[in-house]
Design brief:
It contains 21 helices and no strands. The protein is mainly α and about 450 residues long. The longest helix is centred in the middle third of the chain and has 35 residues, at about 245-280. GO terms for molecular function: transmembrane transporter activity.
């Protein structure tokens, strides 16, 4: 579809079918993935730390140790997805992490907890970049912002619905003779295994294999995707090893680092805000109340994500679709510390959440604009790996800076600094000179406009 010609009826129906058939299901997989990964944050303060005798440091290590196997296996897992096909590989990943997550129901000590967290990271490795790559390669470049925004809605909605859901499960203390936090692990693990098994039959690797597309829709999709692929292949195409040292890919990795650092710092900071509300108003929130308060910024964030990405789809991706949210987030997150009322604080935090989630689906359209095949798989995995390093380090750096300074102003300004770096690097993409080993397709081509 060109920017000026209206889409044909075949084009519309093909994209609509993909939006209804694939995106909600992969989004459900992402919802369960994020809930399983963060279940420990609900379990810890609601009985697990006490039952296992965990110190704060041990709980922090158990939370962060997940990323060791996850980070190391991101790139190999995405290359395996390219080799074996997304249907088989994503289903395998989901069943694997569901089984490991289920074992948390019967964990009895700190050593077992550490081992299971490492295994969970290994099992989940490659799911998110694999899902991004899978959906990106199903539609032409002009539709990727729309498709990825629908997929990305699962992440803020995981907090909106996942936090109260975890609270309800924890409240079932005594079910099957299990403590509430163990019931929660049981309740979030079984869906992962079941949906993973369904994925084996539901997902389709290529448009030409989709029985739910008619012949005209298949022909249009295949011809459009082959045309884009041929355009990229006509240039010097980098190998997987070359991609790992490609300056453009690393610039995208640093941009993503800033956004994910802000995302995880937001998650780290929000419980502190809620605790401050309790002290200020002399009230006590139960686990369900805390879940609802935690969800407040994420519902507007889901709406902002959808509307911002819809505009990006209509106009074609502009650089400002990414750097304006980065600047807004950079200013708003430290500004929250200077608000004098709970309402004002939550408004500013909500602006931060809206900023981060508005940028992310548009950002993920960039790697597949100039890479394809195994090189695209490697690049997407590498970028996500750097982002997960930000997720691993955000809490620790925030804690260290707080201990050194005695307040949250310094660590929150650090968060703002990382997000501002993302904005600056995105602005630099216009004049960024491609390395000699990079493909000749400019990163600001097609859906990423210079305006």
């Amino acid at each position: 579809m060109s920017e000026h010609s209206p889409p044909s009826s075949v084009e519309k129906s093909a994209i609509n079918k993909i939006s209804l058939r694939l995106v909600p299901f992969v989004g459900l997989m992402f919802f369960i993935n994020f809930l399983d990964r963060t279940a420990i944050s609900f379990a810890g303060p609601n009985g697990m730390s006490q039952d296992l005798g965990l110190t704060i440091a041990q709980f922090g290590l158990a939370s962060g140790i997940f990323f060791i196997g996850y980070i190391l296996l991101e790139v190999p897992s995405n290359l395996a997805l390219h080799r074996f096909g997304a249907r088989k590989w994503l289903a395998r990943i989901m069943v694997s992490w569901g089984i490991v997550s289920l074992l948390f129901t019967w964990v009895s000590g700190i050593k077992e907890l550490y081992i299971l967290r490492i295994l969970l990271g290994i099992a989940e490795a490659g799911f998110f970049p694999g899902a991004i790559l899978y959906l990106s390669l199903w539609v032409p470049a002009s539709y990727r912002s729309k498709i990825l925004s629908l997929f990305y809605l699962a992440q803020p909605l995981t907090v909106v619905f996942g936090a109260p859901l975890a609270a309800v499960l924890i409240g079932q203390d005594g079910f099957l003779g299990l403590a509430g936090w163990r019931v929660m692990f049981l309740g979030v693990s079984i869906p992962a295994i079941l949906v993973g098994l369904i994925a084996w039959f539901w997902l389709v690797d290529k448009p030409e294999q989709a029985r739910w597309l008619n012949d005209d829709e298949k022909q249009w999709l295949v011809s459009e995707l082959e045309r884009e692929h041929a355009t990229k292949q006509n240039s010097q195409h980098p190998s997987v090893l070359t991609v790992m040292f490609n300056g453009r890919v690393w610039m995208l990795s640093l941009i993503y680092f800033g956004f994910i650092y802000g995302l995880y710092a937001l998650g780290f900071f929000l419980p502190t805000i809620i605790a401050g509300f309790q002290q200020q108003f002399q009230v006590t929130f139960d686990i369900f109340d805390k879940g609802l308060i935690t969800a407040i910024p994420y519902l507007p964030a889901a709406l902002a994500l959808y509307l911002w990405s819809r505009d990006a789809t209509r106009r074609g991706i502009r650089r400002w679709h990414i750097y304006i949210p980065a600047i807004t987030g950079a200013v708003s997150i430290p500004l929250a510390l200077f608000m004098e009322s709970p309402f004002a604080i939550m408004v500013v935090i909500t602006i931060t959440a809206c900023s981060i989630f508005s940028a992310l689906p548009n950002f993920w359209t960039l790697p597949t604009q100039f890479l394809t095949g195994a090189s695209a798989a490697a690049a997407v995995a590498l970028i996500n790996t750097i982002g997960n390093i930000a997720g691993f380090s955000a809490g620790y750096i925030t804690g260290i800076l707080h201990d050194l300074s005695g307040n949250y102003e310094v660590p929150m300004f650090a968060v703002g600094g990382f997000m501002l770096l993302s904005a600056v690097l995105m602005l630099m993409m216009k004049s960024y000179q491609k390395p000699a080993d990079a493909p000749s397709i400019p990163i600001a081509s097609q859906s990423l406009q210079e305006k």
